[in-house]
TrEMBL record:
Keywords: Hydrolase, Purine metabolism. This is Probable allantoicase. It comes from Chromobacterium rhizoryzae. Gene3D superfamilies: Galactose-binding domain-like. Residues 35-180, 201-344 form the Allantoicase domain.
Amino acid sequence: MALVNHPAGTVLHAPAADVPEFARRYANLAAADFGARVLACSDQWFAAAERMLQASEPVFIVGEFDDHGKWMDGWETRRRRNGGYDHAVIQLGLPGVIKGLDIDTSHFSGNYPPAASVEACRSAGDPDERTEWVEILPAASLGPSAHHFIAIDDARCWTHLRLNIYPDGGVARFRVYGQPVCDWERQDPAVPHEVSALTKGGRIVAYNDAHFGVPFRLLMPGRGVNMGDGWETRRRREPGNDWCIVELGHAALVESIEVDTAHFKGNYPDRISVQAAYVRHGTDQSIVTQAMFWDVLLPEQKTEMDRQHFYGKELLRDLGAVTHVRLNIFPDGGVSRLRIWGRLAD
């Protein structure tokens, strides 16, 4: 693996299976599934820019051609003969703080861009000529048919990105991993909110195992589409149980909890419980230790396969306002969705 260092972070050339923590922990804010879209691009002669926002892995189809030439699964511009470079403006599906990027050139070998940079802005509407763009990734070298993971150290919230490729070529997928940000000032405090939701700023703090699933999908909207759409641990061969800690998007007085085991049939947890606390200080690492001693919000409950489990106030203990919850599963298994509903606390 080759490492290229620059002020914005580290570019890591790696196979798809060897991904950094930010790509495993955070959601792709530029996914078409979240409503991300390409607003404008300088050129898309060979392949439409929208393709690079698809959630699916890119594919290569031998012998597949269309009116513009070889069909490619991604964004590909024509060969630039007049100087300059190509770019695409992308509206993120969810505004958020960017933790890292993946500029994926899979299957683009003789036609990949030698370099790319990324600019960002925060805009209530579509960016225009008056928009001020901020460079979050200076020009970084790219290689053929590879993932290029770039860690971003920037605490600002962004709504749009501009991907620049130098001078032309193809990008299979452009993924923007980050933490969604919710404007709670606009939310009604008098009604319950799904404070654990990814779209409301909920995030995964830590988990002990995620051998088969991606933990952040616990906080996704809707029900899981299949058994791969959720958090699943390996088969436990030793005493104990598995767990996942979630930071709520806003401190809340919890009124109800949903644990959905959709599509998990021979591998759902036998039981679950939920602990919670109001965390005022600490790092993610220290929270893992603190969580072992948090009060129980929902005592152990038996679960069933492929079912939504709802737990109301009659089962929940009154712990006051909480900012974090720990979902315990006994002894192991898979959960599709976790939803925490509550009224906003000061």
